[in-house]
Amino acid sequence: MSNAPVVFKRKGKATQRARVSTPEAEATVVDGGDAEVSESPSALAAKVKRKTRTKAKSALSFGGDEEEAGETFKLKKGVLSSNLAKGKASTGVSSSSFTPQQTSGPTYDAAYLNELKASTPSARPSLHSSALDTDVSMDVDDPSQFSAITVETPLLNPCADEQSETAIPSASSILSAKQKRERLRANKGSEDYISLSLAKQDDFSRGPHPESRLMREDDELGDADDEFAEYTSAQERIALGKKSRKKEAQKRRVEMNDMIVDAEEEDEETKEWEQEQLRRGGLRAESVEPAPKPVYKPAPIPMATPIPTMPGAMARLTKSMSELTTSHAEHSATMAKLGEEQRILDQREKEMREMIAKAEDKRSWFDAFREWIESMATFLDEKFPPLEKLEEEHINILKERAGIIAQRRKAEDEDDLVTFLGVPTSLAPAEDVVDELGRSLPSTTSPAARQSRLQARQARRTLRRATNTKQAASDEEGYSTDATLPAGDNEDYRTAMGRLVADGAALMADVKAEGFRNPAAGLGKWFGEWRAKFADVYTGAWGGLAMIGAWEFWVRLEMLGWNPLERPRSLDSFSWYGALYTYSRPSPDDAGVDEEDDEPPLGPDGDLVSAMLTTAALPRLAALITAGALDAHSAVALRRLLDLLDELSLSVPSDHPKLELLLKATNAIYVDAVTHTEDVLKPFIEVLRVGQVQARFDPAAVPARQRVLMRQRKLLAGLLRWRKAAGDRFGAGALVTRLVQDSMLPIAETGWEVGGEDVMRKVAQSLPMDLCPPSLQSLR
Description:
The chain contains 25 helices and 4 strands.
């Protein structure tokens, strides 16, 4: 085809629509249809409107009736059409046959159509790898790229068959078709009307003035914010809350995972479709070589097997027989081993079941034991404070009683000393004291007060001699223990002790359970069952000592109000003593000993009686003695104390700390008695040292001196007896020497001829040789 321009006439028909050809549209067509498809209909409509406002519109007409003289335009051919024309010229197509005639419309004669038909290839063009590379990117604006590439593109052939006649529509048929389309355009509701635009006008807003053809810039469709909102994040919202931020982060992770899955996923149907499109477009070479036919391969013929011989068969059978025999022996040994293992496993299973049953029984028993211990702890927490309060009250009663006796004894000693030594300056009678009501109170150091105390002492001695006729003959004034309270004080003392015992009994009045009232039925039962069922756990947990700690409450409650020096009572007479003795020595059936034994041996706990004595009894006895239960001038109280110590020595070792505590408390009583005697004699000894004794005749002086010396001799006898029982580890010997030299000897020297010598001779004879002072050695 020649390069001569084709001239078209402009028609003057106003209703004729024309297509506008622009360089941008041509570039879009050359690049492919993807750019048009990717743009939205609103964007295309806006682009067309902008272009139509800036460029002049031109109407083309092919075969119209009216011709408009004047302006014509020439069709400018591109580089591709020129190259295509050159390629066709090389195939033998005459370019002169394609020259259009300068007529009113296109002319299609038979010769032109035949040439066009002959030049149209009937087969799909083959792809030459050297001529075209699908991966090479081309720029349609650069014509130099097309010079090195030769592409044979088939021309449009409206007549596929060479034998068929070419049907060319006439001008009247084209005109009627145009008129029909105008009618359909006017009647858009018809089903035969197909719009050529990609978007309908009804789909877009026509603005505030739809009847006006004027359009404001703000009313244009396809605003950039709306067009690209999906890509510019214009519609996204910023997450401010914690939950919204968490939701947005989760949404982004899901989208990223989807994009990764989509990128890694390969759709077979899409891949086949792409390959088919490449094949149809001629961009992929087709395989022209047929598939290779399978070649027949005959099966290999096996080698001939020799016929076995008798010796070989016998050798194989013998070998197989030996292998079977060995295997049988191994299997038999394995079966025997497995049987033994099965037996061991059965035995272990039986043992494990027994262990599980024992563990379950142990767990259930200890659960019940724990519940009982918790209830016992609650009981003791409630009852122990009132018991301790009652014990403190008992201590206060004994202290008050001992204070009354000591005060009276001090006053009697001072009265006797004043009788034969005179009144020292510190003991001179004081003026009468007046109370808050103006009443005069007599002085305790006045002669009248001394005379009343002497009469009261004689009355008590007479009553004591009358009630105790056995000691009436041997009773010597001053040597007998005058520890009797006055009638009123004695009645108050007995009332207080009775109330104390009643309060102790009322402490358990609200307890109805036998296990809490009787510790042998509660503690003894549970701890004995623990020892019988789980001896190893019981021994490892020192169950006996734990039981002693809980049993202490009932021991102290039973000993409440008991003074062992006032009411002699052996320890084995208490109920707790017998219960602990029996618990410490299980029955022969439980202990596995011979029934012929007189006394069963001790159990794994040892002697719990000794443990209870050191835990509760000895501290309680020490507290009672310290409070004043022991009278240092009473030989009966000392004898009962020594008997109690002998009984304790059977169960408690002599070097036990709690027994040492009791012995120290007893020795402290004698130390206090000697110190009290020295304090009473101190003002009179000062008078003797300065020689200010008033020599006067008084018939009561000799009996008074005798009473003082006999009272000190009685204290010395008790101290010597205590030293013999406890030893000299507490300084009892030094205390004896201190009493003789500092207290007795100065008083005896004041009346040596009237009884003092006889008393000191008896003292010297009773003292051990190592304790006798040198001044008394001649009296032995």
